[in-house]
Amino acid sequence: MLHVLANRTYRRLFAAQAIALLGTGLATVALGLLAYDLAGADAGTVLGTALTIKMAAYVTVSPLVGAVSARLPRRVFLATANTVRAVCALCLPLVSEVWHVYLLILLLQAASAAFTPTFQATIPDVLPDERDYTRALSLSRLAYDLESLASPLLAAVLLTVVGYQALFLGTAAGFLGAALLVLSVALPVSSSSRGERSAPFLGFGPFLRIPRLRALLAMNLAVAAATAVVLVNTVVLVRADLGLGQPEVALALGSFGAGSMLVALLLPKTLDRVGDRPVMLPAGFVLAAGLGAAALVLSTAPAPVAWWGLLACWFVLGTGTSRILTPTGRLLRRSGESRDLPKLFAAQFALSHACFLLTYPLAGWLGPALGQATTLGVFALLAAGAAGGAVLLWREPRGTPVRSRGKTTG
């Protein structure tokens, strides 16, 4: 897997992604604690609303970015987006009202919606060989797991000596470092920048036409169900229901990241051997099982047992999300021409995050209304339904090559 880091351009882009996500993970922990300070037991509602705003920014901004980013200088575009994110992170420790949080989240996530799909569409141009690209996807998944594992563990250590407000400074430093790394390399010029025309609105078309991408839409909903519960409800489950402290919030989030990281490390050889479908489709049912088990443990077990059960269930949810998210770039790369990849990645970014427009507010609002255990049960059913839909939608003809390329119907 690590041999792709011999490519200097990819090595620096991977480093930029890793440190930016490390900072984002610190902000995730700090934001939950900030919400708890501002709203107490209603922190889940605040987080659910903030994350809904985040998803609204993703869904509205990223399709526009997909249409124009390929015609702009990639280095400057990516570095500018990271700089805007850094400024927003520096402002978060200064907030005193909930609406301040909402405004800064809107600005920060609009910049993220500009950065992420453009960055993702750049990697296939840097690593055109499919085996190299597969390993880059696993490394990218590991970088995202830094947000879920290393960042919470680092946050847990830092919180023993500083207040959570200091974590936002680490977030800003990560974004600025990423901007400098992007500026230090020469990036390939996209086909659109060279004047090659791409099909209008192609980004959304394949998701209606190609079975594997229709199934991906359903799997996106299963991932959104699990991730929303972890990000929105963890702070309330740990602080209010189990009566534990700030470091335990970080450790619970870290358990989710540990499961995801383990799968990302093991997945490249598995994908080479069996392909994407046998890896991805069962993962939705893994997510449903993890959510259902968490509901059972939290409703029946005493607090010490429930704490360890929560860590185990969050680990399982991490494994399931990684089995879906890691191969997603392979599906997109096989579903369009090179010149159309920016639009295709932007469409996946928008459509996947549209699922969070449903799950984030539900996680935040159902928790206080129904109780956390019942909310977990509702999300288990949602994930199970999405997983079943994906199985029905992804029916490839017998004999379809595992590593087929181009605009196939599978």
UniProtKB/TrEMBL annotation:
One cellular component (GO) term of this entry: plasma membrane
Membrane topology: Multi-pass membrane protein
Name of protein: MFS family permease
Residue span(s) of domain Major facilitator superfamily (MFS) profile: 9-401
Gene Ontology MF term list: transmembrane transporter activity
Cell membrane found in the keyword field: yes
Pfam families to which the protein is assigned, alphabetical: MFS_1
Keyword set, alphabetical order: Cell membrane, Membrane, Transmembrane, Transmembrane helix, Transport
TM region(s), chain numbering: 12-34, 46-69, 167-189, 215-237, 249-267, 279-299, 305-325, 345-363, 369-394
Subcellular localization: Cell membrane
InterPro entries referenced in this protein's UniProt entry, alphabetically: MFS (IPR011701), MFS_dom (IPR020846), MFS_trans_sf (IPR036259)
UniProt KW Ligase keyword: no
Annotated SUPFAM superfamilies: MFS general substrate transporter
